[in-house]
Amino acid sequence: MSDVPQPAAPKVYKAGTLTYTLGGLGALFFWLLWGDFCYILTGVIWRNILPLQIKALDAPDWVIGLVVTSIPAALNMLLNPVISTTSDRYRSRWGRRRPFIMVATPFIAVFLAIIGLSPDIGRWFHEGGLGQLSGWSLGAITVVVIAVTVFLFTVADLFVGTVFYYLFNDVVPPAFMARFLALFRLVGSGAGVFFNFFIFPHALERMSTIFLGAAVLYLVGVTLMCIFVKEGEYPPAERLAARSHPWDLIKAYVRECTSQKIYVLLYVHVTVWTIANICGVFSVFANLSLGLTMQQIGTLSAVTGAIQMFLIYPAGMLADRFHPLRLLVWMELAIVLVTPLGFVFLFTSFSPGVNYTVLFVFALINMPLSLLYQATLMPLYMRLFPRDKFGQFCSFNAICTASAASVGGVVGGLFIGQMQNRWPDEVYGENYYYRLIPAWDLFFSGLALLLLALLYREWLKRNAENPV
What we know:
Blueprint: E1 13-15, E2 18-20, H1 22-56, H2 61-89, H3 98-116, H4 118-134, H5 138-171, H6 177-199, H7 207-228, H8 246-257, H9 261-276, H10 283-289, H11 294-321, H12 324-338, H13 352-384, H14 390-422, H15 425-428, H16 437-462
Helix pairs in contact: 1-2, 1-5, 1-6, 1-7, 2-5, 2-14, 3-5, 3-7, 4-5, 6-11, 9-14, 9-16, 11-13, 12-13, 12-16
């Protein structure tokens, strides 16, 4: 036999029945992150531009909350558990996640295009006789067109958004999960930077072009991801009883998802934290009340987002170094402590230039805290929720947060309306009342911190014999 050494076989990495070489793993990461970029950029576009567009149509704040927050959240609450549990049990030659994404993608692109054309569609309805027949103004009809389209868009988008993150858990090798999630957040931040620097300053005058471009990007980008990312084989799905009554299935679903106290505390905490951040949709109006221009707001978000990109991977490493729940407690405590800084604008009348500098400093303070908070959430879910029913448990968590967002979107808008009555424009200056948003944030984030402390105590009790 020859003594010539044989070349070593390339190392392979496994995720279920899938195997990857280092090159294959790189290709997997590229296509998942490319799909993530298209998905995140689309979400950033419509969530940030629509409030401005609706406000420009003279709609009250509660309508902004209803269209941008409550309608999507209510649909999420209703459809997420159905899509999640169906996807967990679905089997096809394309896998159990990609079919949902592929079917919904063309509809999402179409509805994005319609949102972009909503001013023209609203004008067509108004001039076609609907305005005279109903007595509604052009702005009111356009808002209705936007609301109906957002409803349809959200239905389609949930088929992607619900299972998109589950796909990671199915195809990414566990040994690389934390690093992938760090890159995932990095790409998401990159999409935000791109939007804030290049798109946001032109949000109002080029709305149609922006949404049409987003529709094309989404259709092409997400379709390519589905083609090049493969799913493996899954074990046979758990069969439901042939004559199971829907109510029995619902009861079993709720019973399984709330089977342990630690799950319930996690759901309640994330729900309250969602409410704490509801009024963020109005923050752009608070910045405008301080004299900032659209260009300055976009630049502020883009610069801080670019800085954040350099911190995302270290944040992922830190989340790996410490248990995500421990890190979550410290980050949430710090966020609660710095939230009152926002009250400074209630008692000052700085120039717009000074306000811009102060907001930049506040952003630098909040940025690493919110970054680490987000870095811990998905790893925490993966640590606590059972892997075989991960989608089901995530869907129940989504029901809780979506319920809060559905109600909170309108209630937050009504809260802003009450602040407007208490601090009217003619006395305190235009849009001064938006500066009261930190009061909402502080109350609910403080309550969320208390619930997180209870969750942490339950986790310690659960792991008393073998703490992580």
